[in-house]
């Protein structure tokens, strides 16, 4: 009996071992004792499929749905408009509601908890659980790794955001730096945010000194130089460029040449801004014609109720933000113009994801200029405003750490309610996507309403390029890609959505989508405490006390009518589905801001003191 069990176990082990091994091409030459008796053979050299496109993936930071003019906003983005007018606008595309989870999901084609980035890769924001440790597993290879191994050159510039803090020194290890995840060259910063004039700058595997210019200019120069050098040496080899500026994340810093272009343009305030943008969005066709604005958030004052000095201060904040976004568009334009002038544009697939989450609420009710003073726990509102007014001329400069007030976040998130970090709401997760590929797209300026998510970009790219999803990457077996290719919709506006289920979770706030229905629950404490009074720190709340909402997005795209009481059976069904998706994707245990802020999360390799959520 023991012998039989041993044989069975041996067979099972052999089968498992054989299944776990990559399929390596067998040597097809002949090795004799002498050269005359031998026959040489060389293994295949990776080569991209004939006609495979270059790929440029552009990811902006902290831009809401109603910011850029390409989707009806009042901030000029002529480059994005040109790409959208000659490509496609995807109006029903989604992110995760915050930066690191979005980036991990985007690069791997898998949900963020599944690839271990439920929060951040920062020590303070990670935890010792499979979905929370902040370390991308080798079994979930990135789009850069796949394309590199299929004959592409691969470059990344700008914000990376998913390298663990304790590994982000010049001592490494480097396997979770961009160069360890498939990018042959990298120039940018590894963290969640950085100063635009004094960035924590990295080139390839070493920190380097910034040259004093704005970071957007530096990363654009570097991106162009990478492409130029490659094309001189291998003109027929395609490239993949991941272009992820720190813009428009705080600090909002930009030369006054750009911000002064908006002087007086927003004097009517954020309420009028929302109304104008809603009308623009209807004209463009990027929102339904029946759309109405959600009510003003209770934390945001009516613009006409503000004192004159408040309006002056708040307007300047937004003039700077608008200039920052327009300047970013200009730098993207330099890159696109380079492609056009060098005959590369026709066969380049360009994605522009206009924001890695909704507009940021992290600027507080009254805006931030100097975080050293703007500490909501130590200042009352009147003192806070008074000091900000004395610093108004420094807003947007290299000496300030600027972020706009909450009212402008709501405005640039038009037509949605809520904002960044609110995973239960479209305001946190619903971002514009532009797809541009002159050789592929037949309908220039088309609108696509199919449901999509950042995990869909990887499989879309592989399908367009004619590359199979790999079972192994350099000998390591790969998990299943979870995204759904959007290629089916590129030339078929009426195609039915194929991405039908998607879950969301950020610091307790959570949601589940299925076939147009969506259930979600906000969770306290909120990620940002807007009450300026001392001693008002948030307290731990129970997840079971969170109130779930239910929306039919097919008829109510921006979540205005809660149907939870009308359809309790649908809500119960979706809550069960959320639990199933959470189990499947390593989402548990639930972790919220209270756990993080009160140091209930401990890391053996370093301090929990890593600064605020970004």
From TrEMBL:
Keyword Cell division attached: no
Stretches assigned to the Sulfatase N-terminal domain: 53-467
InterPro entries assigned to the protein according to its UniProt record, in alphabetical order: Alkaline_phosphatase_core_sf, Sulfatase, Sulfatase_CS, Sulfatase_N
Keywords: Calcium, Hydrolase, Metal-binding, Signal
Transmembrane domains' residue ranges: none
Domain of life: Bacteria
Family: Belongs to the sulfatase family.
CDD domains for the chain: PAS_like
Signal peptide residues on this chain, from the entry's feature table: 1-20
Protein name: Arylsulfatase
Hydrolase is among the record's keywords: yes
PROSITE patterns associated with the record: SULFATASE_1 (PS00523)
SUPFAM superfamilies: Alkaline phosphatase-like
